Amino acid sequence: MKKGLIIGIILVIISLGLIIYRETSKVNLHELTNSMKKEENKRVFINATFVAGSITNNYYVMFSGGVQFIVYISDKEAARINKYLLDHEEESYYIEGITKLIPKDMEENGKKFVKEWLDHAHNHEEVEEHDHNISTEDFYQYFGYVYLDTSTFDYIKLIIYITGIIGLLTIIYVVNTKYHLIG
Q1: Rounded to two decimals, what is the model's pTM?
Q2: Which of 21, 74, 96, 107 could in theory staple to 45 by disulfide, Cβ–Cβ 3.0 to 4.6 A?
Q3: 126-171, pLDDT tens digit by residue?
Q4: Predicted pLDDT at 133
């Protein structure tokens, strides 16, 4: 009986340790893109404040703190985030995932997106004509070398849930067996 209680407690402690590890290992994507690092599979997050639009299928440009990022997310989720941000203007939307290198084929679509964005922004101002074509170097200055991928399965979260639930159930079983608290 003591062994069961000890096993349950150990499983709950492992679960709590994994929660702490998971939360402390995340990096704000802003820090990573500012450093211009090409780090893949790094756990990151952003607090999105605006969904600017889609570069291509499921690749969206989102703003966080005045900086733009590329986020791979489903069209349905992007629409839900955009609706939330429009309904809650003073708030941000927390998004987490892992980093992936921006594929070369996205460069051209990203350059077109930035050009259209800048053209649209300057069309509302009484400014002389500008050429808003950007270079590859400019593209990486805008977005960094990585994007946030939300589509990957989070195994750590699954392990946290499984170990926590098994640990708690084991503790409940041992305590109930000893003291007959539950029918």
Answers
A1: 0.77
A2: 96
A3: 555 566 778 888 888 888 899 999 998 888 889 999 999 999 999 9
A4: 79
What is the 3-class SS of the chain, one letter each residue? CHHHHHHHHHHHHHHHHHHHHHHHCCEEHHHHHHCCCCCCCCEEEEEECEEEEEEECCEEEEEECCEEEEEECCHHHHHHHHHHHHHCCCCCEEEEEEEEECCHHHHHHHHHHHHHHHHHHHHCCCCCCCCCCCCHHHHHHHHCCEEEECCCCCHHHHHHHHHHHHHHHHHHHHHHHHHCCCC
Q: How many domains does the chain have?
A: 1
Confidence check: pLDDT of 123 > 70: no
**Distance of alpha carbon 52 from alpha carbon 60, whole angstroms:** 7
Domain hosting residue 96, numbered range: 2-177
Is 134 inside any structural domain? yes
Judge whether 182 lies within some domain.
no
